Amino acid sequence: MAAKKTIQQKSITRYFLISVVAVLFGMLVFGKACLISFRDGNAWRALGEKQTRDSVEIRAERGDIYSSNMQLLATNEYKYQLKMDFWANQVSKDTLKRYMPELVKALRTELPDSTVRKIESRIWAGWAAREEYERRVKKGEKPSRNRNYLLAREPVNYMQWKNIQSMPFFNKGSNNSGLLVTVQKKRVNPYGTLALRTIGSIYAVDSANRKSGKNGLELYYDSLLRGEPGLGTKRKINGRWMTDADIKQPLNGRDIISTIDIDIQDITEQALVNKLKEVDAELGVAVVMETHTGAIRAITNMGRIYPGVYAERGNYAVNAMIEPGSVFKVITMVAALEDGLVSMTDSVEGYSGQHPFGGKDVFDTHPVTGKMSVVDVMRYSSNIGIAGLIERHYKHDPSRFIEGIYQTGIQKKLDLDIPGTATPNIPSPQDKVWSGTSLSRTSFGYGVEVPPIYILTFYNAIANDGEMVQPMFVSGIMENGKIVEKKKPTVINSKICSSGTLEDIRQMLDSVVNGVGGTGKRNAQSSYVKIAGKTGTSRIAQGGSYSSTQGIFCGFFPADKPQYTCLVYVRRANIGNASGGGTCAPVFKEIAEKIYARNIIKNMKSFPVDTLLPKEPFLKKKWVEGTGVPDVKGMGAKEAVYAMEKAGLRVNLAGKGKVVAQSIPAGNAIAKGQTVELSLK
Known about the structure:
alpha+beta
């Protein structure tokens, strides 16, 4: 019994001592907390504020720009700059020695521009920097410490970064291995310079430290593409800043679907650039417009960098002010026919190619002796003929003629999706610049300034049964993979002229290309697709006089049932002269024939299987709908993008050659709007 009592007393004593210790520890903690709160509180709070930043702006993801057939024209590309923290937990000299052989061997596969020796020496150089720091600290110095040592000079792509994370030693995580990365985002154009000035570019940062549109569609639709930034808290964890969108999630930008057709754009650019190189021209423009909708299927603006090299230096199609020359004669003829003062039965004297109007001689490149018909005036592109008709009927009332020009709609401002679009400058008798020669010169396109896109729009109205539609560069807006807005054609002028005038004008344009002696017959007439259009060659005004030449050909095809209207413009050739018939017409013809052939091939896809024509682009590996992400390894860029986009995925490309890796494994389920990274070598 005594023994049992002794045990109870010992237990009570033990519990008492434990309680006393617990109370004392609690008092100590409480006292320390009070000390920290009241004595050191301000200092700790200041330190905490240094480690945390509230209301940090989180940039939204900028939207993409697509072609009409949903191929990427502008997107965001991420690169990963590899760094290493040699002060991380498990980084030591012995550890580096143990992992070095297999690590550098693995890195060599993802960093092909570096040799094993270079990679190893770079890592040891980083470790040497740490040892040097420690030596200087022991000496009492206070050197700066770099915890972000550059591991590779060039950034890697997403797939490379993922592979490097799984390599020996680096697979221990950044806190232990010291492997760090800085994400770099840039705007890229997967198709290079194709329609670059129309697609546009972005500034690195704007005044609000955000990336924003600089020109083209990137600028016009900047507010949609940019999205809305979010807000979050930035905290320093293990020496590195981490941001959490815990206040407001960013709203990513919407995607833009342009009207550009990659195939037609490629056809158009190649045809133009080849001609520019051939004649060593200063610059050239080629635009293809879908007749009924006004959709711009191709637009290329090429300026000479140096002989043989051309690039998109400006959007000349929409902002260049040019004297259109003889292509303006069609506008003149529409105004005169509509006024009822000129008819198809009229004739005019040719004066053998030289005659004064307003006291100054006018010349014809293709002289006509004796009388010529109204159709002949257009067929031979006679300056004397058109000037004679206009002088005959409007000499004493030039304002009536100019008013007729305005009524066609050529002067009406186009509300395009391209910032900086210029507007025509067609003087009237009330202007100070009007003189005795102005009436005749205006009739054949001198003394007026018109951007190429306006000429194209007018000719498109002729092809479109008189209905003038506004050029359209964007067909829709997309959000999270769904179209939220569809753009419809905008009618500027429901009828530029009467049906009778329209029929007469189309007959004239047909005669230019297909009639005997037509200025476009030699270089624009095609055996495959019927073309109608007008040549134009004019001298370039400079320093009060005219020097050098520029050429234009504008027309539509097929002539009997127009589907496309096209304009080709070339300025200042160093080899020969830039002309509408000799320089621009061949480019137009090539574009028309290739587009026509392309459409025939497209239509063949609906033919029965026994035609032996494939119904889709040939793929080395077949993908069946519903089987998940396609396996595109080993494919070229074009077929890989085709397969992925057909599966409903967005694609980012990195590198050139064949696909060697894809960020989403083959067979995985597909999520709407998902982006797959393809690495090519």
